[in-house]
Every structure is written in structure tokens, then in C-alpha cells.
Amino acid sequence: MSGYIGEVTALLFLAFALGLDAFSVGLGLGMQRLRLKRIALIGMVVGLFHIIMPFLGILFGTMISKQIGSLTTLAGGLLLVGIGAQMFFSAFNYRVKKMIQPIGLGLYLLALSLSVDSFSVGLSLGISGVKTAIALMLFGLVSACLSWMGMLIGRKVEGFLGTYSELLGGSILIAFGLHVLFG
């Protein structure tokens, strides 16, 4: 029993580490005056992608080369920098409609960029023989909760910062994207 608790505890810490990027990006997204319904949907999609990506990593781990993995990390980082830059610069012009929003394809691209690191974790999970279903559920649940927390905190901060919140939110997304690219 203690071995099972130790394994679940280790998976919980791993899930928390994987979900921290969703929290960081959630802070920036929350400053966009998102409705609670949109926040709930974004968190669910991010959580779902944190289940799908490690599952795909487990399934296709031996078939995928390291070079393809580095290209997905590059694409995810560039996407976050692009969303952050668009958000940052749109703060200077209130007439400009936001081009990239967490709806439709933009939401799925955002969730994909946040869960790319989960894919590589899935590769190692398949090799280690860990309890896959528990790991995947923990990854999804923790990342969804952390993204919700980030967006709700970002939403509150936006009220205090007013027009500067969009600059801060964009800066957070740019910084996280650069961290994905170069960190």
C-alpha cells in the first residue's frame, strides 16, 4: 500500500510541475476579461490536452524521433510569443480587434502548446510501467485546476491594473514562450 501511495504522490508532483505552465499562461489569459464560462471551457480543454498528449507519447514513444519533438516545442514556444505579442501591442490601440483569442482553433493551439511537454513525459511513462490511467487523470485534473486558478487570479489582477493588465498579460505570455524556446 505504501508503494502505491508513493507512486501516486510522485505522479501528483509530476502533474503539478506539468500544470505550472498552464497556471502561468492562465494568468495572462485571465487579464483579457474572459467570462467565467470561457474560463471553464479553456481549463477543460487544457486538462483534456494534458491527458491526450502523454497518452500519445505512451502510444507512439518508440516511433517518434527526438527531432520531431524539438520541432513541436519550437512551434509551441513561437505560438505563445505570438499570442503574447499580439496581446501586448493591442493594449496600445483599443480599436484593434484581438486577432488571436482562446476560442475555436486558437484554443486548441494554445492547449497543444501548453501540453507539448506532457508528450515527452508520456514517452518516459510508457517505459517505466507506471499506472497509466491514474497518471493521465492526475495530469488532466491538475493542469485544468491550475489553469482555472491562473485565469481567475489574472481576472482579479486585471481589475486592479486597468489598462495596464493587457500589457502585463502579454508580457507573461511572451516570457513563458521565450522560456519554452530558450529555457
TrEMBL record:
Q: Which domain of life is it from?
A: Bacteria
Entries under InterPro entries matching the protein: Mntp/YtaF, Put_MntP
Keyword vocabulary terms for this entry: Cell membrane, Ion transport, Manganese, Membrane, Transmembrane, Transmembrane helix, Transport
Q: Give the CC-aspect GO terms.
A: plasma membrane
The membrane topology noted for this protein in its Swiss-Prot or TrEMBL record is: Multi-pass membrane protein
* GO MF term set: manganese ion transmembrane transporter activity
The protein's location, in the record's own words, is: Cell membrane
Transmembrane stretches, start-end? 12-29, 41-64, 70-93, 105-127, 133-154, 161-182
Function per UniProt: Probably functions as a manganese efflux pump.
The Swiss-Prot or TrEMBL record describes its family as follows: Belongs to the MntP (TC 9.B.29) family.
Q: What is this protein called?
A: Putative manganese efflux pump MntP
Please tell me the species this chain comes from.
Answer: Virgibacillus pantothenticus
